[in-house]
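User: Just a sanity check before I run the rest of the batch. Below are the structure tokens for the first item. I only need the designed sequence back.
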């Protein structure tokens, strides 16, 4: 058990914040990267795609490795990869090197499910729900603060400074983990499923590259169709192998239990709805005033519009924990999805002035904070204690897939509904943004519906620590 007050929780939460910041720091830099690196806009976009792919692949794999070989050990490996990737990006302006560095950084996405699993193993049971809520909220908090901080760095310092800062902070966080976080004694026996890992990697790479690049390459192009075909062919073979393996990478028999299946599907829709808020808000306020609805805000202002949502996430983390303790995480997730839907309903009618835009975005962010706090608790209700890291990794993967699909859908909608303004500028219409908000709102409602399908549990003093037989 943790014996050093809040220091271990603070160290693990710092890992989550730093990971989320790392994901978003290149977003303000994307328009300038073609000139800085000599690459095309399509090639430069791989700095986002590489991080997404690496994180999506690493999260379930490292989660399973953590269950088998030690969660703290694997978490430190993920942090080391992030530091190495940050240094690589900090010392180079060559695009292939930058993409490789961003891929190494993406491995750190696994630190959140690993940290949540350590908290379940080590904390006193009365503190688990609150600690999970705080750890989960770091995803949104880091993302909300990362873009404004990155915009300030880009405007006032050399852009490599962002990566040097990540390397230094990553080293400090790793040192804190070594110093104050004990290794969890909970282990899963057996051998690591190498064949299953290769199969899952193949499916994820084919699927996510096709989704991420479909708009740029053309959805009917040979590359996109070939990648989708590869995913369709390999996926059933991977499922067949997982059902036959003695120690599978993903226990599909547990994963298809209603408590796990509906939670993961809800996570996918929550991830979509959350990401639409960030993508659309940042772009909407920057649209020129000549469009009739745009505010012509700077990139710094667009980033600052997300700050109130980050603050709301910090404040709502303990509220979410108390709600889950009193009513259960199923009720909490349903309330969160409903709040996100309400936020998007607000956005449908208040997307023409800055205050209203920030208010609507903050309501959605508040719902996201509560949802992200409830999802891990639901997963840990339903899986054995020896599989918590792998199960949380799979849940995080579902959120990542939701975000990848959201990015593609937003790009399609905003590029498909455009108009030329009085000054000759071509931009998405206001109806395009409203369509994005409507789609994201329906996704939130879909998550609410899936949450209601999750089987209820009998009241117990500490349901979070029950070894799952849901």
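Assistant: Here's the designed sequence for the first item:
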């Amino acid at each position: 058990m943790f014996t050093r007050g809040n220091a271990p929780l603070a160290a693990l939460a710092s890992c989550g914040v730093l990971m989320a910041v790392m994901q978003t720091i290149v977003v303000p830099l994307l328009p300038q990267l073609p000139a800085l690196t000599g690459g095309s806009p399509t090639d430069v976009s791989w700095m986002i795609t590489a991080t997404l792919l690496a994180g999506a692949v690493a999260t379930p794999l490292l989660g399973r490795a953590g269950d088998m070989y030690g969660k703290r050990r694997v978490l430190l490996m993920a942090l080391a990869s992030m530091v190495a990737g940050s240094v690589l990006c900090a010392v180079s302006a060559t695009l292939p090197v930058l993409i490789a560095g961003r891929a190494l950084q993406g491995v750190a996405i696994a630190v959140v499910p690993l940290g949540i699993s350590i908290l379940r193993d080590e904390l006193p049971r009365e503190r688990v729900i609150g600690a999970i809520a705080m750890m989960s909220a770091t995803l949104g908090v880091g993302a909300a603060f990362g873009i404004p901080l990155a915009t300030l760095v880009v405007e006032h310092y050399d852009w490599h400074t962002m990566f040097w800062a990540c390397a230094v902070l990553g080293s400090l966080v790793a040192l804190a983990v070594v110093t104050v976080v004990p290794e969890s004694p909970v282990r899963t026996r057996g051998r690591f499923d190498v064949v299953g890992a290769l199969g899952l990697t193949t499916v994820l790479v084919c699927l996510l590259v096709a989704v991420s690049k479909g708009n740029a390459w053309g959805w009917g192009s040979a590359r996109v169709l070939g990648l989708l075909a590869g995913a369709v062919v390999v996926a059933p073979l991977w499922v067949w192998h997982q059902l036959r393996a003695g120690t599978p990478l993903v226990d599909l028999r547990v994963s298809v239990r209603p408590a796990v299946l509906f939670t993961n599907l809800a996570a996918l829709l929550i991830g979509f709805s959350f990401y639409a808020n960030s993508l659309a808000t940042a772009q909407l306020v920057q649209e020129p005033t000549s469009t009739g609805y745009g505010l012509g805000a700077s990139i710094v202002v667009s980033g600052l519009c997300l700050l109130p949502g980050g603050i709301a996430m910090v404040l709502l983390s303990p509220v979410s924990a108390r709600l889950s303790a009193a009513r259960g995480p199923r009720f909490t997730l349903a309330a969160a999805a409903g709040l996100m839907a309400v936020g998007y309903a607000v956005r449908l009618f208040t997307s023409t002035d800055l205050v209203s835009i920030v208010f609507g975005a903050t309501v959605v962010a508040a719902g996201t904070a509560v949802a992200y706090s409830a999802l891990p608790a639901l997963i840990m209700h339903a899986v054995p204690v020896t599989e918590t890291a792998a199960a949380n990794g799979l849940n995080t993967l579902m959120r990542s897939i939701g975000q990848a699909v959201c990015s593609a859908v937003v790009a399609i909608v905003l590029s498909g509904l455009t108009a030329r303004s009085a000054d000759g500028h071509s931009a998405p219409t206001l109806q395009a943004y409203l369509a994005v908000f409507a789609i994201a709102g329906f996704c939130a409602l879909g998550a609410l519906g899936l949450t209601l399908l999750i089987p209820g549990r009998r009241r117990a003093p500490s349901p979070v620590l029950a070894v799952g037989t849901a």
